[in-house]
Amino acid sequence: MGPVSSTTPRTPSAVDALADRHLEGAAALDPDLRVHLGLPGRTDEPTDRSPEGAAARAEHDRRTLAELDALLAGASPTGGRTGTELDDTDATTAAAMRDRLGLQVAVHEAGLDVGDLAVLASPVQSVQEVFDLMDTATADDWAAIASRLSRTDEALAGYTASLRAAVAAGRPPARRQVDACLEQIAGFTSDDGPFARLVAGARPDGAAPSPALAADLARGAAAAREAYDALAVVLRDELAPAARTTDAVGRDDYALLSRHHVGAALDLEEAYAWGLEEVARLEAEMTATAQRITPGASTREVIAQLEADPDRQVVGTDALRSWMQELSDSAVEALAGTHFDIPDPVRRLECRIAPSSSGVIYYTGPSEDFSRPGRMWWSVPPGVERFGTWRERTTVFHEGVPGHHLQIGQTLYRSASLNRWRRMLCFTSGHAEGWALYAERLMSDLGWLEDPADHLGMLDGSLFRAARVVVDIGLHLGLQAPAEVATSPGAAWDADAVWRYLRQHTFQAEEFLRFEHLRYLGWPGQAPSYKLGERVWLGLREDARARAAADGTPFDLVAWHRRALDVGSVPLDVLRGALAR
């Protein structure tokens, strides 16, 4: 089956052809990416995580940028569709490629893509998590899984070389991240870890695997566990003694990583000051909302009441998955054809319980032909059986419709007007996460969070994301911490100040906060992309509203949403230019 197409055709240009060649080259150099995107081809080979692998991917980016420059040097912006003439779509593609690929090269030249180690979004996790996305329908699918399991040592051997190269280059990981990853690896290699659960659940064609396939899967799982055990030895014996005790990465690295994640060049001090103001604003709104639920009680007291209310809980992962699916389906049915134009293939979203147990909730996109649907995953920590619907109702809208699933699925569907790189590989966290937060607020405006408890849950998540702007920028830039959390008068932000601030200004469970605390320390610039991206989305909408008012025409929010989403997940600075055109 080929890619699903939208209905308005566009003649591909030379820029489109270059972008699509880049996608194919990137997938060839990164087999894990091929699995994530659902592209055809072998799925049993791992990505080369060595310094040489990172260098090859960066060189591919450089070559594409050089080809793009040469192509544009001979282009004429006439709006035609022959030769190297450009239209607005080409202009947006070129701007997005220069931004994304240019930043990837800059990150590589700074050494930030070799030997990265963190509690989230580093090879420690991704080498294991790729199995969540592999096809599991047939015996051949499971044979590919068995083969990839047996080759986990290849992926981790390359990664080990990268870790050693980073230490040799004076870029050791932070000690906190080393210790946290050792704990994660212990979970991966346990008898009830994700590898053991994966092979235990093998049901090719709906039946038990053949004895030969079962043996291959068992050997593969054992090999994967042994490979992770070997990585743990390296982390414990080599990385931990060499690890740095500081968590902050410093202004130069942070500015680069922030632009990569947010998709916009920021005044970081201004963003930090805005984050402090946004925390105060949301705290006040939460106080007012809590008073609507229980007059006279504090916000923390009201949240404790909601957490204890059995009518606002689902019990067990089966009930959780069913609740997620029912709410998601109802949102799709209600919004399609009214507030959003949702193509038929995008109306299918699967809600699943993830094999991992980190506690995060995340979304994975559909394959190009939509045979693999978009999926919302909930990674449930061990022993957690109760889930508060008042807090997570808004999360379903964030991950599903009108959040990530609509945003990513609609872009993927536009195969007749956007090239494959734009639809499948061009991704910017600030665009994606900013839209998802915008979608939460939009659902509140549309009446889906009329219950004050559900509205409080949305505000709770938004406050949490605002606090992340403050602590992430404050820590990594070494700004002076507020007196209420500073280790000493006038001291800069450090890990302890971050923890105190999160405890004082958010309402999450301690276990969840401890994981998130480690996340910010080890993934600089990503956590603020949610609220800073939402801020840009709201600003773009108000700009469009103002232009409509100046023209004396009514502002059509539905049409604006369609136009904005049709651009795809480009960097926010590029989106601003595209919408202005």
Descriptive tags:
mainly alpha; 581 residues
Describe the structure.
The structure is a single chain. The chain has 581 residues and is mainly α. It has two domains: 14-246, no CATH class; 256-522, no CATH class. Helices cover 62% and strands 3% of the residues. It has 24 helices and five strands. The strands form two sheets. A three-stranded mixed beta sheet has the order 2-4-3. The protein has a two-stranded antiparallel ribbon with strand order 1-5. Helix 1 runs antiparallel to helix 3, helix 15 (389-399) packs across helix 19 and helix 19 packs across helix 22 (529-551). It is globular, with a radius of gyration of 24 Å.
Structural classification? mainly alpha
Per DSSP E runs of 2 or more residues, the count of β-strands stands at: 5
Q: Which band does the percent of strand residues land in?
A: under 5%
- Based on CA atoms alone, the radius of gyration comes out at 24 Å
- How many individual domains? 2
Distance between the termini: 35 Å
Secondary-structure element string: HHHHHHHHHHHHHEHEEEEHHHHHHHHHH
**Major sheet details:** 3 strands, mixed
What do the pLDDT scores average to?
Answer: 93
Total number of helical segments? 24
Q: Taking strands numbered 1, 2, ... along the chain, how are they ordered across the largest sheet?
A: 2-4-3
Unreliable runs: 78-83
